[in-house]
Amino acid sequence: MATPHIKANKGDFAKVVLMPGDPLRAKWIAETFLKDIVLVNEVRGILAYTGYTKNGKKISVMASGMGQPSIAIYSHELFAEYGVEAIIRVGTCGAYQPNIDLRDVLICMSASTDSNLSNALGLVGSYSASADFELVQTAYEVAKRRNAKFHVGNILSSDVFYNFDKEGWKKWANLGIMGVEMESYALFVNAALLHKKALCLLTVSDSFVKSDILTSDERQTGLVNMIEIAIETAEKFSD
User: Fold this and answer.
1) Which of 53, 113, 216, 238 has CB atoms 3.0–4.6 Å from 16's, for a disulfide?
2) Interatomic CA distance for residues 115 and 58, integer angstroms
């Protein structure tokens, strides 16, 4: 039952999918945290795996690519065609607040955006995109039990990575936005439209306030805490 962007069979995906942006990060997550993994998609280099956690729970991991259009395509096809009930985005972000440090975990209960997606839906107004409350609550409880350093709040999903307005981020920061990434708003919108569940967990890889940044190697190893929180959260909603 291939879709235009996913070549997989019915039943290849678990009910819950972890979704990093990078295909190689999806491979790393599957090989590091799951067992008995099966590669179920590699169309356009977008790798997807299904396997089992150490507790025997079936989950999938699939890359989203970069940006809202990309995650919108893949999350829609997973939700609409493959019976996926929940997607947990696991990614990195830049922090906007002085109390948020490198490697902190952000639990995003809502997403703001500079995207035109809300207008593309034909809405007269702006849609407030939110995560699923049960997923947020579960991730919060897991992170708290693990004594992780985490924050819960609103994230900015931006369509712009290299912004020529060097001070523009401060307007979002003044509204309490925790930081910036590029995918979660579109994921939350798709989940709402298709009556599914979605959550975004992020590891802070750089800071606009402190000019700190993780190296590529540090980003890889720094994700472990977030991935373990995501997997434990996913287990609560998986088979």
Assistant:
1) 238
2) 34
H helices, E strands: number in the chain: 8, 10
36 is catalytic: no
User: Is the entire prediction scored with pTM above 0.85?
Assistant: yes
Residue 69 host element (H or E): helix 68-81
Could you report the per-residue pLDDT of 45-63, keeping only the tens digit for each?
Answer: 999 999 999 999 999 999 9
* Collapsed DSSP state (helix, strand, coil) of residue 160: coil
Q: How far apart are CA 4 and CA 31, in angstroms?
A: 26
Tell me how crowded residue 230 is: count the other CB atoms within 10 A of its CB: 29
213: confidence class by pLDDT, cuts 50, 70, 90: confident
Q: Residue 92: how many CA atoms within 13 Å on its side-chain side?
A: 24
H or E element that contains 204: strand 197-207
Q: Contact, 46 vs 4, CB < 8 A?
A: no
For residue 207, the surrounding DSSP H or E stretch is strand 197-207
Residues in the chain: 239
Cα(192)–Cα(225) distance, rounded to whole angstroms?
Answer: 28
Q: Which one from 12, 206, 217, 239 is the annotated catalytic residue? A: 206
**Within 10 Å of residue 211's Cβ, how many Cβ atoms?**
7
> What is the secondary structure of 104-146 as a DSSP string?
-EEEEEEEEESSSHHHHTT-SS---EE--HHHHHHHHHHHHHT
61 and 17 Cβ atoms separated by less than 8 Å: yes
